[in-house]
């Protein structure tokens, strides 16, 4: 029986790779380098050894290897981890890649390459090898050095930027020219695709996996993971993007779940197999005659790549505030050209736009950088000393001053940082969702409805469905009551114009997206419809029903997003963390000339605007005789205590008001009312311990698990009667391990939620007893 050529080829490839990589492991060289050498040995360019016959099949297998590599890169990428990396990783990676890309492009032009080939050269040189760097750190035992964490964080960002680069290069290759508008459109569509799928995946995937994991064996999990990987790769390809982008997104979706390690474990063997074939195929494309004829360019490319990476990576780390010595050590570590560069090279070959001679050139340059990297890391201290001698003293002094931390920190307002971060993240996330809804409704829903219904009913139904879904995600864009926003508003008049500008931008953004379905469905009278739609969105978007529905979506999304963090925290501290340790309590006396004297708490809206609770008011008895008595308990020193005051409770001069909130909210409250804090802020736990002897008006905090038989289960906080009937307030709700602090009044109370309640000793005791009773029944 004749043996298929693919079987023969695989036997030759894998056995050669096994022998060569064992040798390279023995001489402490990177395994990637071993695979490349093994690939060269079985290539048509090395006739003294076995040749691979079925190159088409090997090419297909190598493409599968690229898909798996990108899937695993995504699998080790986590949105929360990226946020925790801070500015150093983002700035250093961006500066380094941009600088090296430009210098690589200039180098290509000097060597006579056209624009596209020069861009591919710059892109390949700009990305460093994660595998080689990580292996070098382990072998040199420097993982605990300060700069290694910065380098690994920078590599995570580089992988993400590499995905963007592949989209840019694919777009430019299609047109063979640098078309600015077309490129921006392609990047915008990719960003929309990326954000939309990440948001949808975070909302759905962890929930689905948690429900089916008890049924899953390792085999089934591997099949599911690989199926998701190829499905997303196929979907991305059908939408006009690369398969690699889809595979990366699939891995990113898995990375946010608590099952990421299991997925990595069950698929790592398959990834290693196909990844090895990919690197073997890289070696098989190395033509020694091309290297021999281009060695005068290969050596300069490798050396200049190392130098440029050192310069720009160091500059990026210094710009982000790192010391020069740390930045230089990080820059030297980023020298090797690696796996992502080979993927970009394969992309250029597959698109037919990159000269084939450039492939072995970049591989040869990569081999040189891989060999030099361990020595560069080992001698990083000497390199730092050398640079210190070369750099002028004036420049060293300037760098020292910039990175010393003695800059005017007062110029960096943390409230502005919080507000701007919230503004851009909300516009990006919710804007993307709204854009996807508007485009999907206009391009798919309306045409489908129009085919089966008359024109007017089809238009009305599509109109209602599209905007009904959009309203849910417009609500968070209309929320302007964060503590930082409020603090900036009240602290300085100069802050108000930019804050108002941000509000106007949000409304303009909403109007622009809301116009898309109006224009697509109603060709005439567009502006009349648009005005009506915006008015309806603003009114309905702030309704209790929409608010409750959105809060359910948001809580589930945030719970899934933080799933791994929640699991880690529960392993370390257990699920019994009490909110009274996180909240603080302060008191103040209402001045006689305060503008809020005589106003009730509902009108003041301190809870909504300043994110605090008024939990107790102590009032002089003579004030009660003059103004009429609110319900309360007898307190000390001739005062009557009003616990958990309702919205109709008025404030009068001389009242002692107790408020609860987190530290920032209380700070904002003081700024808004123009108070100077004279006493230290106590935690709620400390206050209750000292307040306990006053049994008539003492506060207590308990955690109550919601039973399905509880009268407030299935109701919103506003309609639960917990404050009105039971005279308690909800400090927080824990839903499936995720805690929502100071929950919105429209949040739904569901079975198995854990509520943290604050109230008088007597009232919280009644709530605890009622919870126990409903559980038994």
Describe this structure in words.
With 777 residues, the protein is α+β, with helices and mostly antiparallel strands. The protein has four domains: 57-389, Na+/H+ antiporter like fold (Up-down Bundle); 414-542; 579-623 and 636-691, Regulator of K+ conductance, C-terminal domain (Alpha-Beta Plaits, 2-Layer Sandwich), CATH 3.30.70.1450; 698-772, Regulator of K+ conductance, C-terminal domain (Alpha-Beta Plaits), CATH 3.30.70. Helices cover 67% and strands 7% of the residues. It has 32 helices and ten strands. Strands 3-4-2-5-1-6 form a six-stranded antiparallel beta sheet. Strands 7-10-8-9 form a four-stranded antiparallel beta sheet, sandwiched between helices. Helix 4 crosses helix 5 (115-126). The model is unreliable at 406-412 (pLDDT under 50).
Strand content: 5-15%
Strand order, largest beta sheet: 3-4-2-5-1-6
Largest sheet: 6 strands, antiparallel
Individual helix count:
32
Helix proportion = 55-70%
Give the radius of gyration: 32 Å
- Shape from CA axes? globular
The end-to-end span amounts to 74 Å
Might you state the CATH topology name of the largest domain? Na+/H+ antiporter like fold
Structural class: alpha+beta
Count the domains.
Answer: 4
CATH architecture of the largest domain: Up-down Bundle
Short description:
Keywords: Membrane, Transmembrane, Transmembrane helix, Transport. With 777 residues, this protein is α+β, with helices and mostly antiparallel strands. Helices cover 67% and strands 7% of the residues.
